[in-house]
Every structure is written in structure tokens, then in C-alpha cells.
UniProtKB/TrEMBL annotation:
It comes from Streptomyces lacrimifluminis. Residues 1-23 are annotated as: Disordered. The lineage of its organism: Bacteria, Bacillati, Actinomycetota, Actinomycetes, Kitasatosporales. Keywords: Membrane, Transmembrane, Transmembrane helix. It comes from the Bacteria. It holds the Pfam family ABC2_membrane_4. The chain crosses the membrane at residues 60-79, 91-115, 136-162, 174-197, 204-226, 261-281. This is ABC transporter.
Amino acid sequence: MSTPQQPPTQQLAPQAAPDRQAAPGTPYSLYTSPIPVTRTHLGHALASEWTKIKSVRSTMWTLGVFLLLVVGIGLLVASQTQDEDFGNVPYTITAFFGLVLGQICLITLGVLVISSEYGTGMIRTTFTASPQRHRVLAAKLIIFFAVAFVVSAFAIGFVGLMTEAMHSGGEGKAWGGTVVMGALYVSLLGVLALAVGSMLRHSAGAITAMLGLVLVPAILPAFLMLSESMRTIGEKMMEYNAPNALAKIFGLDNENAAGGAQLGLLVGLTAAAIAGAFVLLDRRDV
């Protein structure tokens, strides 16, 4: 007896889901996110770093103390001077005394901008959200420099305006250039500190290194110049250390009031530190 033949089964191709778009040449579809995907760029990193720097308490404390030192000491010095004291110096000279101490605040903030993330482990989240590490570091450098320069220029300019108002009978030199040069110098010190913090990845170590870089050249020449063989080195260190560089910028040294050589040295040193920070950032794990 012959068995009845079964009708042939029909092979059905799977259909694509209505919310999916089928890829060419494949029976299955690929998922399309309903959320628009935007290619990230430096602007996103800048917005992120701006949010960070304005949200943490360390920024408010360090910049607050900086303003207190520069403005407070500057106005105190201005109140103790006479009109004739401003014959050969700009009115912003009173801000110099506060900047000598205030620069330490910007150095500390520069280190904390990046080292604090390494200390808490949040740097892993940052690099996960933005795998392009060089973009993150560039954004930190740009945002910090902008903040430091604006705050420094405001403090120096405010002290200059108040000093000129208090001693309107004097003949102080034009002081607009000292606002830019002084703010640029202390801001670059902070950027240098940020680069050192990126390389060392440790807050206390980076702050100590930067304090040594600022204070040792100001103290060591007094001992080096006791020796005839080391006198030349001591004189150069005395000429280019941070306090004397600021003094030249603000016109305390009549022979070289601009301080261009000192600022140029700081620019070169900062550029070298930034280059080293970028190189080490890609070569080491988080």
C-alpha cells in the first residue's frame, strides 16, 4: 500500500520588524536608535570641563582666596602710599604684593583640576565618556587658562583703578599692559601646574613640585652667590625667578620693566610640560 505524499513545506523568510531597518543581503534587520547620534568634538569636552570647574568647591575657595589676597593686600598697600610714590611706577604696582602670594592659589587650582579626578577615580568615567584623551586634556588646559586669566586680569585691573582713584594727584605710568602681562604670567604658572599634575597624577606631589619650582629659585641664589664659582648661576636664578619676574612686569626694575624675557622662559617651560603631559597621557593606563 502506498503512503500518501505530504505537501511540500514552504520556507518563509523572517520579516523585518517594523521599527528596524533591514541590512542589504541579510534576512534580519539592524536596530536603529531613536535617539539622534551626534559626533563628539572639542566643544563638548569644553562644555564638560566648564561644568566641572564651576561646580567643585575647590574652585570657589582657591579663586576666592586669590581675590582676597590680591585685592585686599593691594588696597592695603595703596592706602599706605602717597601720591608722589607713583611717579615712575604704574598704579597696578600695589597688586604685585598680593600676586606674590596669590599665585600659589592658581598653582594649587591648576593641579587640582586634573589630579583630583585621578585621586577619586573619576578620571575613568571621564575617559570612558570621551575616549580621546588628548581632547580631554586640551579642554582642561583651555578652560583653566581662560578662568585664571579673566580672574587675574579683573583683580589686577580693579586694584589699579582703586589705587588711581585714591591717588588722583599722582603721575603713575600707563598700567594697561601690566594687567595683561601680570595676568598672563600667573595664569601660565597655573597651566604649568596643571601639566605637572597630569604627569604626576598626585595632588600633594604636584603641588610640592610646583612650590619648589617657584620658591627654590627665589631662596637658593642667596647661598649660591656666596661662592665665586656659582655666582653667575645665582644671579640668573635671581633674575628669572617668579617674584622678580613679576617685579619686572610691574615696573619695579626700571631697566627692564616689561619682563619679556622672564615671560618667554615661562612660556617655553609651560609648552615643554604640556608636550610631556600629552605624551604620557597616551602611554599610560588610567
